[in-house]
Amino acid sequence: MVEELVDERVIRSDPNRTLIPAVIVSAVVVEPWGAHPSYAQGHYDRDNDFYVGWETISRERAELASYLDEFVYGVQDRTQYMEKQPRLMERLKAGEQRCAGVNYGF
Questions:
Q1: In this model, does residue 104 exceed pLDDT 80?
Q2: Are the CB atoms for 9 and 23 separated by under 8 Å?
Q3: What DSSP character marks residue 87?
Q4: Are 63 and 56 in contact (CB under 8 A)?
C-alpha cells in the first residue's frame, strides 16, 4: 500500500527511499491515508490523539467492540472511514519542509 505512485526517476534519484525491494512486491495499491493512525512521511503526521484514546478503547471489551463495529466492520472502504472523521485531514496534514539535495556519488 502506498500514498502515491511516483515516476521511477524519483525512486532512482534517492534509492534510500525504497523500503521494500521489488523482488518481494506482488502488487501495489494506492490508498491515501492508508497508514492512519500512523504517519506517512511528508503526507500526514501521526495521530497522537488516536493513540491516547486507544488506551481507553482497548481496555474494555464493549468499548473495543463498539470501535470495531463503527470504524472497521461498519465501513465499506477507506473513503467511508475518512468520512467518519471529517477534520482528520486538516488536523494531521504535513506542512511543507524540504531538505537539501544529497550527493550519493558514483
A1: no
A2: no
A3: T
A4: yes
Question: In the chain, which residue ranges form alpha helices assigned H by DSSP?
Answer: 8-13, 48-59, 61-71, 78-83, 88-92
Q: Can you tell me the distance from the alpha carbon of 69 to that of 85, in angstroms, rounded to the nearest whole number?
A: 15
Summarize pLDDT for 67-91 with one digit per residue, the tens: 999 999 999 999 999 999 999 999 9
Which amino acid is located at 50 in the chain? F
Q: What cell was used for 100? A: 537539501
What pLDDT does 56 receive? 94
pTM across the whole model: 0.76
Residues 38-48: b if buried by 16+ CB within 10 A, e if exposed? eebeeebeebe
The Cα 55–Cα 106 span in angstroms is 49
C-alpha cell at 30: 494506492
Query: Is residue 93 helix, strand or coil?
Result: strand
Q: Are 11 and 18 in contact (CB under 8 A)?
A: yes
